[in-house]
Amino acid sequence: VPKVLIKLCSISSIAAISISLYTICSHLLAYRKPQEQRMCIRILLMVPLFAITTYITSSGILSTFYSKIFLQPIQEIYESFIIYTFFTYLIYILGGERKILMEVAWKKDTTVIRHPMLGRFLPPIDISDPKDFLLIKRGVLQYVWLKPIFIIGNLIVDLNEEEDGDSGSNGDINSNNNWTSQLKFALLVGYNISATLSLYELAIFWKCLYKELTKFKPWPKFLCIKLIIFASYWQSILLMVLQHFGVFKSHVNLKEEDMGYIYQNVLLCLEMVPFAIGHLVAFSNEPYTYKKLPESSRLSFKYALRDFLGFRDLINDSYNTLFGTEYNYRNFDAARATLTSKADKRTRDARITEGLRFSRNGKEQYWLD
Predict the structure, then answer these.
(1) Phi, psi at residue 334, to the nearest 5°?
(2) TM segments (predicted)?
């Protein structure tokens, strides 16, 4: 890599980290809504993390082999984590799961939407139904659970291919290539299914509550997240095509595919400054300042730092989502019987099956013991 590019990467990395740290500190100094701001800061950390890892790879501090083993998995796991974090952030700005299921959804003319293109084959989604909500949440979160498995599988394949290349043996190389190529293909298919499902469920949630989300201006936030992920993915595809046509020439101790990987990190590193500026604008601390929330108390910097660094909320949420015992109709009972009567027939029948009953001509409701 030319020294000029390495210098530009170092400047870009320092600038992006500085802008992101400023944005993060501004939230920590105005920490009045811990649930929302915890998610904001975790999203904001994406830029410094990518700036550091891409610079290390671009500058050659670590070899491409070790970068792929240690740094690339960090980027990929955090990408999946950010999708879940953004989904949780949307839930919190709407008031939390209970408010969505018991108030927000019921204020809509209809709580039911059909799956795009698959409406003939799949039942409609009722956002006021705790079980449908749980399906959406599981669909988003499964990507976080499965991503480490895909990464470990790819590491096994890469290490095996590296070992075969170093040994230069011809004994079982065909059989090794056969199983590694099959595993690689299976991991690729599984990864794309998991990522597509996660984004699809996020889109379903977005569509169900788009009107309610509009006042929070979610589009700039969504674009700031997705552009980094899309840039990472599509640039890698473009560089693979260029590599295929021999644009990158091998250097000492570097193969053509290694050169493509390094230039991908160079591009990402240089792009971190505009992404950091975008995050500064989209995830501003303005909604949480004293001017906006004069009656809200503020956590001190130390406790705010400790709050967002803790991951107990992720562990608890993953456990509750995986087992789903709390997502039943009794725990998310509508406040008034007239609201329940607006529910989709399928949802209303399911509530009745679990013990919901009406009285006074549908004006009141109660649960059987």
Answers:
(1) -65, 145
(2) 12-31, 43-65, 77-95, 222-242, 262-283
pTM reported for the whole predicted model:
0.87
Residue pLDDT tens, the chain, 369 long: 788 989 999 999 999 999 999 999 999 999 999 999 999 999 999 999 999 999 999 988 888 888 888 898 999 899 989 999 999 999 999 999 988 887 776 666 666 788 877 767 888 888 888 889 999 999 999 999 999 999 999 888 878 876 665 555 555 555 556 778 888 889 989 988 998 899 899 999 998 888 889 989 899 999 988 888 877 777 777 877 776 676 666 555 556 667 778 888 999 999 999 999 999 999 999 999 999 999 899 999 999 999 999 888 888 998 999 887 888 888 887 655 555 666 677 777 888 888 888 787 767 778 887
Query: Measuring CA to CA, which residue among 287, 318, 270 is closest to residue 47?
Result: 270
CA dihedral 56, 49, 191, 236 (to 10 degrees): -50
What is the bridge-based pairing of β-strands 364-367 and 356-359?
Answer: antiparallel
